[in-house]
Amino acid sequence: MGTDVIKEIRSRIKGMNLTWTAGKTSISELSLEDRANYLGLVVPEEEKAMIQEMTERDRLLAGKAGTISIYPTQWDWRDVSGNDWTTPVKDQKQCGSCVAFATVAAIEANLEIFKRDPALDPDLSEADLFFRGCGDCCGRGWTFIPALRYAQSSGIPDEDCNPYQGNSTGSCPDRGKRVVKIENWRTITNSNQVKEWLSQRGPLIGGMSVYEDFFYYEKGVYQNAYGGYVGDHAVCIVGYDDARGCWICKNSWGRGWGEGGWFKIAYGECGIGRQFAFYGVQFTADDDLVMPKSGRVIVRFIGKNTPLDNEIWLYRPEEMLIFRTADCEVGAIFDLGVFPAGARLTFALKTSEGHVFYSDQLLNDDACDHVNKTSKGTYKWQMDWEDLYGLGEKDYNDVSMEIEIFNATTEDLVMPKEGRVFATLKRRHAPTKEEFRLSSPEERLIFTLDAPIGKAVDLGKHQEGARLTFAFKTLEGYTFYTDQVKNPDFLSHVRKLPTGYNRWELRWEKSYGMRLKSYRDLAVEIVVAPIIREDVILEKDSHVVARMISKNTPLHNQFWLYQPEKKLIFDSVQENVGKSFDVGDYPAGTRLVFALQTQDGNCFYTDSGLNEDGKSHVIKLKLGSNRCQLRWEDLYGLKDTDYNDLVVEINMNPRLNL
Question: Of 211, 187, 155, which is closest to residue 48 (Cα–Cα)?
Fold first, then answer.
């Protein structure tokens, strides 16, 4: 049976022009159920969501100018400077402990690199990590984050302290004196950053989906050719090769499988680097900000004590200048945007002498720690920087700043659909010169509070999804926004209450620090008038005729063509009822915008976006393939809505040639 499967796999490999070899391995002859016991990676839903969120953010940032990842075209920690910085391949046996083996493999190799000793050859206990960290998990497997947390908090002793036998046996009495702990770890989803990490720091932990033919892998660059999905598996990534388009990995199925227990796998194959994230371990602390929750990140400049003109930057996950100390006032606040839970923010200090120091010490040219990060609250930290190369002094007060995370929610108006926006003054505490403003997407004064109650202001057309930020500027000099994090006291000074379909009321409180909470200082109604287009679009080359059907209004109105040209079609007088009027000849695809010009000076269009009151004053009824009816309402603001003030029939007579 095994020989037949190998022949079939080899046939598929040849037919698909793949570059790997299949054959009999140490586990290929086991039953499929027994082979599946060699897997054991479990990825919880919240971790999948985090990976997807981080991957999508990396994808969006890839098109922007930002950090450039620099790395060689190939890397293999089994041969760097003539030394092997990895440890020997092990065998997890028929137990779903692959996460522990991949984690230990990465920690062992990184420990050699950290201590700069390829002969160190540490041998840490997978049994301790797996059976103490997870429990009786052979049958259900484990996940990455708990394994890394265990390695950070409890550490991992040497193999002799708790030898791996495929089941739980207990650790040695002096375990606490024999453990190796990691200081931290990182989650990476961008393949360029993965290669940069591998070439600069060390091996990584990763996941992959396993298909039946993977158990028969002997050598080459693996790509799935045969068999169904069996389960998920954790491995250690030790390098890559851009010329061959593959990752170089260490497995935990013993030396009788693969290339002596190692394998190569094509980029993106089996979800590696796509469906699964990479995890890097660290033995030094860094002062990066790992987002404990999704939120908006604010930086506040506290002060400086240096003659140098320094700059503070966000380095990752995107590169942006935050502020220059030379032209920044103490207390100035900078909004970095919204970041997801789990995202890692690396900050940098650029000195006027040309040095760059990072919150991640490993990136610094002098290998020194140039920043102290201290907690100032649940979601607030202070960063104090030292700007001299080599830490010529260590007072850590050259540049000081605060970082704070706020909930990403705001009371901004997000356009539910394309439409015209109107703001109406409803109530105020007293008539004053205080201002109600639009802050974004443009800066403009809407009205002052001495305007008449009921005053409505047209804010123009905005696209679906556009975000409008409003502001209340007080006589005391404060400006409060619907986006809370822009407020000088970082408190919410407005309540947005829905009062109808596409209609809200903004109720404002102007006291700094929210000394009062009445929300009665100002009330503004915001209305979105969706744009309705009842224009006539020609499906064919046509001769267009308009016929006046009826009128039911005392006003003497006119019916016009507005686009693609402007011309009067007819006067809506009683003697024109039943008469037809030429509109013109137009090619297929032409959009005809009609208008009703009223006797009292208003003009209403089939495109409501052109109407001064933002209302739709016409209903278009289809009467056939080449005929429709336009029913008009001629009162500003739709004071009545019977839509029979003027009824016009539009006939589109197809023509063979124009």
Answer: 187
What 3-state DSSP class applies to 423?
A: strand
What CATH number labels 2-62+70-282? 3.90.70.10
Q: Architecture of domain 289-406 in CATH?
A: Sandwich (2.60)
- HEC sequence for 181-248: CCCEEEEECCHHHHHHHHHHCCCEEEEEEEEHHHHHEEEEEECCCCCCEEEEEEEEEEEEECCCCEEE
Residue 341 and residue 187: Cα distance in Å, rounded?
12
The topology under which CATH files domain 536-654 is: Jelly Rolls (2.60.120)
Q: What is the pTM of this model?
A: 0.54
Q: How many CB atoms lie within 10 A of CB 252?
A: 26
Mean pLDDT of each 10-residue bin along the chain, 658 residues long: 86 96 95 94 82 68 52 94 96 96 97 90 96 92 95 95 85 92 87 90 96 97 96 97 97 97 96 91 84 88 93 93 93 86 90 92 81 91 93 88 86 92 94 96 96 91 94 96 86 92 95 89 94 94 96 93 96 95 96 95 94 92 93 90 92 78
Catalytic amino acids?
98, 233, 251
As a whole number of angstroms, the distance between CA 295 and CA 239 comes to: 35
CATH classification code of 413-530:
2.60.120
Domain ranges of the chain: 2-62+70-282, 289-406, 413-530, 536-654
Whether 279 contacts 204, CB under 8 Å: yes
Sheet strands (E) in 317-385 = 320-324, 333-339, 344-350, 356-358, 371-377, 380-385
| Per-residue burial over 620-658, b = 16 or more CB atoms within 10 Å of its CB, e = otherwise | beeeeebebebbbbbbbeeeeeebebbbbbbbbeeeeee
Token pair belonging to 366: 């002098």
Which one, of 600, 602, 599, 630, lies nearest residue 615 by Cα? 602
State the residue for tokens 């760059």. Answer: 356
Phi, psi for residue 200 in degrees, rounded to 5: -105, -25
Smallest CA-to-CA distance from 577 within 505, 509, 646, 493 is with 646
Asked whether the domain spanning 413-530 has the same topology as the one spanning 289-406, the reply is yes
